[in-house]
Write a structure and sequence with these properties.
By secondary structure, the chain is of the alpha/beta class. It folds into two domains: about 1-110 and about 235-300, FAD/NAD(P)-binding domain, CATH 3.50.50.60; about 115-230, FAD/NAD(P)-binding domain (3-Layer(bba) Sandwich), CATH 3.50.50. Helices cover about 20% and strands about 30% of the residues. Strand 1, helix 1 and strand 2 (about 25-30) form a beta-alpha-beta unit. The chain is elongated, with a radius of gyration of 21 Å. The site of NADP nicotinamide-adenine-dinucleotide phosphate has 21 residues, from helix 4. NADP nicotinamide-adenine-dinucleotide phosphate binds next to helix 4.
């Protein structure tokens, strides 16, 4: 029996674990894959205070993990299959066991959205990727296409320019959504070419991606572009399926909380990217984690 179980080991879950352990609460953090979450897939984090030269996403979360371990947080790498949260004792069922706790913090994060176009599924891992950090080295001196106009698309396109010969960015509008400083970097980069007002219709090839079909929606023109890789960054889907019908979600599946991270279920909190909020950044994930641990500590015990 734990005071608190945290599901998810990204920056939000790690921060919650550090704070809850330091409040004197017994804390178990369960993570499915490996500690770090989406942050580990980010090349350079330039906007986390304290690192004026930027820091590798993997390095930043490794430091957070080290810090949590130093304070005695227990870690478990296992998949959570279900939760029971409507009783006083919360039960988290994993592949290996059932873990009981007084409180539960959900930090399950997000997954990349899919385009759902012909060829996307077929060529995933064969030229279609959702992770430039993982796959960019495969495209040394090759031509790649990045889909999307948000921060992720631009950050990852910039990273790809370290390897690829040419990086096209296709965006459905004529204006990017990404932060201004990222836009400026991308516009200045001679390896990047923008394809605005256009959508990807199909991804084609024999064994691997060889070309894509593009539609310019302003000119209603359809054409082919020879390409070796397609990197898709069109937003995020919350990992909240486990909690559907158990706690309140918004229309897109993000978990609704109050400003102190409480969900509608007593002693159940949600933090980080899976939570309905405006700004999804490492720093806001960490802040959510600290707040949730503090809220639980106050709601539940007299330790805070
Ligand atoms: P996002 O901000 O939701 O942007 C998604 C982009 O994909 C938008 O440009 C959108 O077009 C486009 N899009 C969505 N659905 C599409 C479809 N079906 N077909 C074609 N294009 C489609 O997602 P994100 O870039 O992954 O960022 C997610 C969050 O993480 C944001 O809050 C972002 O600020 C944060 N983040 C921050 C950094 C950083 O370094 N500061 C880095 C990465 C991510 P429209 O613009 O037309 O809607």
């Amino acid at each position: 029996m734990y005071d608190i179980v945290i599901i998810g080991g990204g920056p939000a879950g790690l921060s919650a674990s550090i704070y809850s352990k330091r409040f004197g609460l017994s804390t178990l953090l369960i993570e499915k894959f490996g500690i770090g979450g989406q942050a580990i897939l980010t090349d350079i984090v330039e906007n986390y205070p304290g690192f004026p030269e930027g820091i590798k996403g993997s390095e930043l979360v490794n430091k957070m993990e080290e810090q949590a371990k130093k304070f005695g947080v227990e870690f478990l790498i296992d998949e959570v299959l279900g939760v029971e949260i409507d009783n006083e004792i919360k039960k988290t069922k994993t592949n290996s066991s059932i873990y009981e706790s007084d409180g539960l913090i959900i930090a399950t994060g997000v997954n990349p959205k899919k385009l759902d176009i012909p060829g996307e599924k077929e060529f995933t891992g064969k030229g279609v990727s959702y992770c430039a950090i993982c796959d960019a080295f495969l495209y040394k001196n090759k031509d790649v296409l990045v889909v999307g106009g948000g921060d992720s698309a631009i950050v990852e396109a910039l990273y790809l320019t370290n390897f690829a010969n040419k990086v096209y960015i296709i965006h459905r509008r004529d204006k990017l959504r990404a932060a201004q400083y990222l836009q400026e970097k991308a516009f200045k980069n001679s390896k990047i070419e923008f394809i605005f007002n256009s959508i990807l219709k199909e991804i084609k090839g024999e064994k691997r991606v060889e070309k894509v079909i593009i539609q310019n929606i302003k000119e209603d023109r359809i054409y082919e572009l020879n390409i070796n890789g397609v990197f898709i960054y069109i937003g995020l889907t919350p990992n909240s399926n486990l909690f559907k019908d158990k706690i309140n979600l918004d229309e897109n599946g993000f978990i609704i909380t109050d400003s102190e991270m409480r969900t509608n279920e007593k002693f159940v909190y949600a933090i980080g990217d899976v939570r309905k909020k405006e700004l999804r950044q490492i720093i806001t994930a960490c802040a959510d984690g600290a707040i949730a641990a503090n809220t639980f500590c106050k709601d539940f015990s007299d330790k805070c």
